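Support reply, case 0932

Customer input (verbatim):
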Amino acid sequence: MSRHHTGWICLLALIALARTASAQELRSPLMDRGNSVIQENAASLMPTLRGRHLYADQGVRVGRVREVRVGQDGTTLLAIVARRRLLGGGEIGVPVSTLSQVGPVLTMQGTRDTIRAIPPL
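Our regenerated output:
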């Protein structure tokens, strides 16, 4: 291989390495600590919410809570609910902050139509 080609190959390799390095996500210890706190919160809510029925307005049974996960944004806790077939089926994510407990009943606001409109995960 000529010296000219070797120089071009090295230059292209350096450009590829630079792109890979710049595309990596910047992380900080503060972000890692925040993520671990969110994960701990999700884990602590699991025994409380898992297996419970979730109801909406006017006593509509939405489904049963399967688990608690951290949302894609990394800051929201989601209750993963197995939605009843009558309401569209599939699993949906409901922000834990929107849930409330009235006596022993776990509730959320919403009508049949709004629950059907929630896209499945």
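We compared this against your earlier run and they match. Two observations from our side: Residues 35 and 74 are 7 Å apart (CA to CA). DSSP finds three helices and six strands in the chain. Please reopen the case if you see a mismatch on your end.
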